């Protein structure tokens, strides 16, 4: 080899293309990009005319193409083939972006959820009226059998519902709670027919029911709300909200929803109860619901 300005040492090639010597050595050993000449001492030399090839390799690597994809393309490189390679990568990235956007939306939803929960903590057991839009839920009745109602039955029912969401490829972090039937709210058997629910995404269409799980449309409108630290089967809070509704001349017109805001993962030594919000649809005087 006659050394002239067209030949570059590995260090010179490294500096020109801003790629490490170690990477160039790796490319040589794995037949990705080989030097034009290696002398008897093992020193690698490249031709200046190889720079466009290395430049293209670096460009493709920067766009996350694998070395195999790059090598295969160079072995049969045409304008048509490089377009196919780029289109395939574009489609893959678009799917990744779509997945990341869903994750970002999920994180934003959770942030907003906890911000609203912080506000609720400021007025525990203080009833007020709030308007909610229509939504859909999946409901499954609690099945305590001969056992007294407890947290374990709630957890079992909740996981049954979450598994159903997973079965139909829905994200299970849309909120959950308990539903108590309207006809039982002022009886001595308030938990009769009650059960757990999970919220369905706002844009969900179709039928998510299965086995003894049913999909229910929760009507939009005005709700009497009250936040509390307590489990859904501790019905003294239902009695308190019912009394406030009657005392203020309102009328309950539907099932009660006990939405879980902070669950077991937020328990402290001083408090080992869920933080929830009771929501009971009401008829306001002079307002059509």
UniProtKB/TrEMBL annotation:
Keyword Transcription: yes
HTH merR-type domain segment(s): 7-76
Coiled coil: 83-117
GO-annotated molecular function: DNA binding; DNA-binding transcription factor activity
UniProt cross-references to SMART domains, sorted A to Z: HTH_MERR
Key words of the record: Coiled coil, DNA-binding, Repressor, Transcription, Transcription regulation
Keyword Lipid biosynthesis carried by entry: no
PANTHER family registered for this protein in UniProt: MERR-FAMILY TRANSCRIPTIONAL REGULATOR (PTHR30204:SF69), REDOX-CYCLING DRUG-SENSING TRANSCRIPTIONAL ACTIVATOR SOXR (PTHR30204)
Protein name: DNA-binding transcriptional regulator, MerR family
The species this protein was found in: Eubacterium oxidoreducens
Organism classification: Bacteria, Bacillati, Bacillota, Clostridia, Eubacteriales
């Amino acid at each position: 080899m006659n050394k002239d300005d067209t030949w570059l040492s590995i260090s010179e090639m490294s500096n020109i293309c801003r790629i490490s010597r170690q990477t160039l050595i790796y490319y040589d050993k794995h037949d990705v990009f080989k030097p034009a000449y290696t002398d008897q001492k093992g020193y690698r030399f490249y031709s200046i005319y190889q720079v466009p090839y290395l430049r293209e390799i670096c460009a493709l690597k920067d766009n996350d193409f694998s070395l195999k994809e790059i090598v295969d393309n160079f072995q049969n490189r045409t304008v048509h083939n490089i377009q196919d390679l780029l289109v395939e990568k574009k489609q893959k990235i678009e799917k990744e972006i779509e997945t990341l956007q869903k994750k970002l939306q999920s994180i934003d939803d959770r942030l907003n959820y906890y911000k609203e929960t912080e506000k609720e903590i400021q007025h525990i057991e203080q009833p007020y009226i709030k308007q909610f839009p229509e939504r859909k839920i999946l409901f499954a009745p609690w099945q305590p059998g001969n056992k007294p109602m407890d947290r374990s039955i709630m957890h079992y029912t909740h996981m049954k519902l979450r598994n159903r969401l997973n079965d139909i490829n829905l994200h299970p972090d849309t909120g959950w709670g308990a539903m108590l039937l309207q006809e039982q709210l002022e009886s001595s058997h308030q938990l009769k027919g009650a059960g757990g629910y999970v919220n369905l995404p706002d844009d969900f269409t179709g039928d998510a029911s299965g086995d003894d799980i049913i999909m229910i449309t929760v009507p939009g409108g005005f709700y009497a709300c009250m936040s509390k630290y307590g489990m859904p089967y501790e019905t003294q809070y239902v009695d308190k909200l019912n009394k406030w509704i009657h005392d203020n001349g309102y009328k309950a017109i539907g099932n009660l929803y006990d939405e879980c805001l902070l669950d077991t993962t937020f328990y402290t030594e001083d408090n080992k109860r869920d933080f929830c919000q009771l929501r009971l649809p009401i008829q306001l005087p002079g307002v059509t619901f």
